[in-house]
Design brief:
The chain is mainly α and 97 residues long. The chain has one domain (7-83): 434 Repressor (Amino-terminal Domain) (Orthogonal Bundle). Helix content is 60%, strand content 0%. The radius of gyration is 17 Å and the shape is elongated. The N and C termini lie far apart (36 Å). It comes from Nocardia lasii. Residues 37-91 form the HTH cro/C1-type domain.
């Protein structure tokens, strides 16, 4: 097999491997959730430590979550939403073809 010549080629090759597409999608979701929580926290002028205290978490757990390093459970998302005085909305919708 020839070596990939650039990042796009390597990514395309890796996404054909078993389980890769699912792992990539989970990482995308984790990143987007973390970015959303970070934005809400920053809008309030809170540090990660303040959010962690309000959500009964550690600052390092908040940091990992905001960086997209962990896929949180629903109870963790609920604690973060409550700490930020926000609603947690989870939906499953049919795909539009």
């Amino acid at each position: 097999m020839a070596e990939p010549s650039d990042w796009a080629e390597l990514r395309a090759q890796r996404l054909t491997e078993p389980g890769a597409a699912e792992a990539y999608e989970a990482a995308r979701i984790a990143f987007e959730l973390g970015r959303t929580i970070r934005g809400m926290r920053e809008q309030r002028g809170w540090s990660q430590a303040v959010l962690a205290d309000a959500a009964s978490m550690t600052q390092s757990a908040v940091a990992r979550f905001e960086a997209g390093g962990t896929v949180p459970s629903l109870p963790v998302l609920e604690r973060l939403a409550n700490a930020l005085d926000a609603d947690l909305v989870v939906q499953v919708r049919p795909r539009v073809a």
